[in-house]
Amino acid sequence: MLFGKKKEKVHFNPGNRDDGVDENFVEETVNKIDEDDVEVVLKNEENIDKKFSGNNSLSKYMELGRIMVSMLKDVKNGRYKNIPWFTIATVVMALLYVLNPMDIVPDFIPGVGYIDDVAVLTMGVGWIESDLHRYLDWRLENDLGI
């Protein structure tokens, strides 16, 4: 059991979004995420941070990555419990993609290497935006800051 939570099977429902995403692919991928994947993300927090830190135009995404990792840590430590499995799995899936240097557009290609990373992170954040806002509100209410 992940962080004391039962992993429920996810049925992807992005609402009325028409972003061209194959819903079956998302469901299959998210349902494959397990506790080991979460640990990989948490152990690579510094690498995720470094990925976007060299470019000022990507600083927004660096901050999103920090918030997502912080949320995973708070869930793991039992401090934050108001989170569905889909959100945990989406965060992990997006951050694992960011960590992968040989993705659709390899990161070493100057100027365009991070386009796919930013796209995947943005899409993931779009799916879980309300959960991220709830988490940030919880952080503020508990005076934990980010």
Automatic annotation (TrEMBL):
<dbReference type="GO" id="GO:0012505">
    <property type="term" value="C:endomembrane system"/>
</dbReference>
<keyword id="KW-0472">Membrane</keyword>
<keyword id="KW-1133">Transmembrane helix</keyword>
<keyword id="KW-0812">Transmembrane</keyword>
<dbReference type="Pfam" id="PF06803">
    <property type="entry name" value="DUF1232"/>
</dbReference>
<feature type="domain" description="DUF1232">
    <location>
        <begin position="88"/>
        <end position="122"/>
    </location>
</feature>
<feature type="transmembrane region" description="Helical">
    <location>
        <begin position="83"/>
        <end position="102"/>
    </location>
</feature>
<dbReference type="InterPro" id="IPR010652">
    <property type="entry name" value="DUF1232"/>
</dbReference>
<protein>
    <submittedName>
        <fullName>DUF1232 domain-containing protein</fullName>
    </submittedName>
</protein>
